[in-house]
Amino acid sequence: xxxxxxxxxxxxxxxxxxxxxxxxxxxxxxxxxxxxxxxxxxxxxxxxxxxxxxxxxxxxxxxxxxxxxxxxxxxxxxxxxxxxxxxxxxxxxxxxxxxxxxxxxxxxxxxxxxxxxxxxxxxxxxxxxxxxxxxxxxxxxxxxxxxxxxxxxxxxxxxxxxxxxxxxxxxxxxxxxxxxxxxxxxxxxxxxxxxxxxxxxxxxxxxxxxxxxxxxxxxxxxxxxxxxxxxxxxxxxxxxxxxxxxxxxxxxxxxxxxxxxxxxxxxxxxxxxxxxxxxxxxxxxxxxxxxxxxxxxxxxxxxxxxxxxxxxxxxxxxxxxxxxxxxxxxxxxxxxxxxxxxxxxxxxxxxxxxxxxxxxxxxxxxxxxxxxxxxxxxxxxxxxxxxxxxxxxxxxxxxxxxxxxxxxxxxxxxxxxxxxxxxxxxxxxxxxxxxxxxxxxxxxxxxxxxxxxxxxxxxxxxxxxxxxxxxxxxxxxxxxxxxxxxxxxxxxxxxxxxxxxxxxxxxxxxxxxxxxxxxxxxxxxxxxxxxxxxxxxxxxxxxxxxxxxxxxxxxxxxxxxxxxxxxxxxxxxxxxxxxxxxxxxxxxxxxxxxxxxxxxxxxxxxxxxxxxxxxxxxxxxxxxxxxxxxxxxxxxxxxxxxxxxxxxxxxxxxxxxxxxxxxxxxxxxxxxxxxxxxxxxxxxxxxxxxxxxxxxxxxxxxxxxxxxxxxxxxxxxxxxxxxxxxxxxxxxxxxxxxxxxxxxxxxxxxxxxxxxxxxxxxxxxxxxxxxxxxxxxxxxxxxxxxxxxxxxxxxxxxxxxxxxxxxxxxxxxxxxxxxxxxxxxxxxxxxxxxxxxxxxxxxxxxxxxxxxxxxxxxxxxxxxxxxxxxxxxxxxxxxxxxxxxxxxxxxxxxxxxxxxxxxxxxxxxxxxxxxxxxxxxxxxxxxxxxxxxxxxxxxxxxxxxxxxxxxxxxxxxxxxxxxxxxxxxxxxxxxxxxxxxxxxxxxxxxxxxxxxxxxxxxxxxxxxxxxxxxxxxxxxxxxxxxxxxxxxxxxxxxxxxxxxxxx
Length: 1047
Hints:
By secondary structure, the chain is mostly helical. Among the domains are: about 1-125; about 305-385 and about 405-470, no CATH class; about 475-615. About 70% of the residues lie in helices and about 0% in strands. It has 55 helices and no strands. α35 (about 655-670) packs parallel to α38 (about 720-730), α44 (about 830-850) packs antiparallel against α46 and α51 packs antiparallel against α52. Residues about 285-290, about 290-305 and about 390-405 have low confidence and may be disordered.
């Protein structure tokens, strides 16, 4: 039942009471309609609240609802109160009400405070100084009024202020009020006197205020970013006293200071004593000198030793101030920060039985952030030097801009990096702790502990990749860092001398973690990177330790033998993928690995952990085999490993992946003699494989996949077909693509072509894995890219599959990757474009025949528009030849205007209700890339686009209101890009198209006006990022309105 005319207070009271009594359907709908009535609801709620706090329960509920209604309506304050007189009266009413209710229900006065803050921000009259002098309001209310504008400007609940001037006015108010606000928040805080709760509240509000002030500086060019910090420094003693009482909340304040990169000196002066107070609350009197003496207290209780609330602070410190302090650029105790980072890692890791994967990953991430920050600073320095050299004659930034850039982006010359010793000290601390905490669990059969360790190790390996570029000289590896390797060498030598038949579990744990660590370090730097020399030297040292004592690893008992073999393989992989400076050198441990497959380690339950690392190690070793000759002995062993014990009926996904890697190894071992490789596979493998494929095809002819040995739930679907396609892939040329139509691999592929056709056109598809169509599509992609003589047949078959099958995602994805990667040369770009144009058009035409099914299948929608968006991708501005097929494919497709128009119509239909973020991005990207007048026939192209402009605007607006993911920065950027390029291409037509499109959106008129105003005023925004941020706030506001409409 809708609200008919202004309701009486009695009627409103009844509806609120009934709603809370359980009548959510009818009373809830009535109350929602009441809130939508705008000015009428405003006046009614003002009258309800003017009576002052009501004593009854029903009265409290009525006033709480009225205050919430005012807060909601105030988010569009200027839409409900349009003339200046009405705006002034409405704001004064809120000021009066908050005084009346300041000592009443907290829910009421908080909602009134929110409404007043919204009104003042919309009017541009918000003045914090006036709040501090409002003695009629309790302190807690004034604190709330201080923190709300910060949330309304910079949080997820930010107001959709469409005027840049309103934002600048609020930002300026934050800066002007810092001195008085800081004094107000910290007033009465004296050592040992302030209440803990008071200090916690003060620190929370201070942290929110500092965040708002820091973000406000972006809107105020030329402002003194250090001024607020100097104001806070005048309250330093009170700040430290509050921090001692509330260290966790003080860490939030420290986070904001750590992000104050525009004034690092002043921020560091505050951070140094503040961090001392925070850290002392977690480690007593422990000092940074303990780092040198090894006295870090790691045996305390986790809660006391390193609380988890330190992680965000440490991450922010690692992102700028901590590395700068370690390099001596700012005055902070970098060693004390390092101790805290180690302690957090210690608490997260504990021992292998109690390792918390999430906390360990975050703790290791702190160290990774530290290294990434230094890498970014070095790249910034090198980029600046390069740009100064290349562009000095063309553009010289203003002195103010150069100063701002240097403040916001830290620049570190590589020479300076090489001269410091602090990084070596930090890396040594980090590395030794990894060796301590990343050991395998005492009971390796504990699956949960083992899985947590694998996650933590993966994080550590990522961090080591970044550290390797800083510890870039072999001399940087101190004796302490080499000590674990020396210890393993000594332990293995002693074990060999002891003539013992069985290695202890503790020794196996020690060896395994050292192998893992040095393998991770050795693989962390690619050839040509700064850390490559050190990584190569370390790898050589590790291999020198292993090789003389390889036999000792065989003495470990299962499952330790399997784990040690696997660790040795991982270390060998690291060495083999980082070739030494001597070309043609032999691979490391290849013969040893070929004789020790995981299946012979006596631990079948651990194949899940060891099978893939082994296959990767063998592939890496074979890639390093000397070229120019076929390594037949290696090839024969690989034949046996791949096919000897293969049973299609019980093949698993992991085993198929391992077989694919071994086939890749075979390709590298025998690739120098493609004739021999093809003959061997044709004689020894392909006949049996083809027979197995025929058998599994026959058993699955009923329309669904079924294993020839029965419906085994654990077996991988279509194993014979997938192995056949991997075997065909192994025949393709090694190295550069070959366009030779007489290449033996091309002949073999054409002989097996009917199996590919069957997989892509006829075989039933396993819905969970998309096999065999996925494997066939991937194989065809590789064939097109490595043997372009097959390109026409490949793209035609993929297009035919996409057109005919119910699951076209895999062939569409393969077509997209071919369009992106087709090698031109040796392929003629025009010929490649013509072939791809025909295939893409055929696939799109067929899919457009089943529009409704396509709309209901987000994966297929994403695959289709991912292909189309890539096919019409132009070269970057100012360049040529960067699009697919050297810019030849785009004009051919765009010339198909009927097809492109139908695709745009599908975008308009599918976009509003699409629940796939990926599909939504691809559709918007496709439409945006079409918005260009720089085509062969601009008039015809523009006419085609103008017809679809209004439906596209409606679709984008409806999607912004309906899809939550479009309020995220990355996704909303795609929508913003589409609107902006449309405004450039159609400056006259867009306003009318946008108005027509907004007419199809179920939102209040004042909400629709937000986007119209934002588009009309886009030229006022000096930075595109700021304009997109405001678009994000509009999307959030629309989505809030939508959820309200659904109540």
